[in-house]
Amino acid sequence: MAEEVNKLLSERVYGYIKENNLSILGEPLPNVDKQPQIDFDTMEEFDFLFDIALAPEFKAEVAATDKVDYYTVDVTDEMVDNQIKSYTQRNGKYDQVDAYQENDMLKGLLAELDEAGNTKEGGIQVEGAVMMPSYMKSEAQKAILQQQK
């Protein structure tokens, strides 16, 4: 029943937005503060409350006297190669390796260590953290990553 109510609720909320031509920012969010408790086992009628961020109205008018800069960009082979390199770095895949190259992205578990270098109990841990050592300012921090496998 909860699934059907959720499906119907979604259809009605978005139908209301479309029907009233509302320009919204983001997605409608359930209002957890004002939402009354719902018991699908005992209740037959439900009220749901949502917060909706309306997009502000504004007009951008351009007059014939306004000046707009126009740029001509001469694209070099080097620029194209750099863009291709950038795309391949962002859209590559993760492989498990023993060492990383200068511009590689690393993905793994980051964990707070104690003084002995062991994972600190109750310490901060981030699973699936992604970082690029080439952007690190501290050579000491880069060296720590070189040691870890």
From TrEMBL:
All residue ranges annotated as the Trigger factor ribosome-binding bacterial domain in the record: 2-86
Q: Does the keyword Lyase apply?
A: no
What are the protein's UniProt keywords? Cell cycle, Cell division
| Matches recorded under SUPFAM superfamilies | Trigger factor ribosome-binding domain (SSF102735)
**What Gene3D superfamilies does UniProt report for this protein, alphabetically?**
Trigger factor ribosome-binding domain
Biological process, per Gene Ontology:
cell division; protein folding; protein transport
> What species was this sequence derived from?
Bacteroides graminisolvens DSM 19988 = JCM 15093
Official protein name in the record: Cell division trigger factor
Keyword Membrane: yes or no?
no
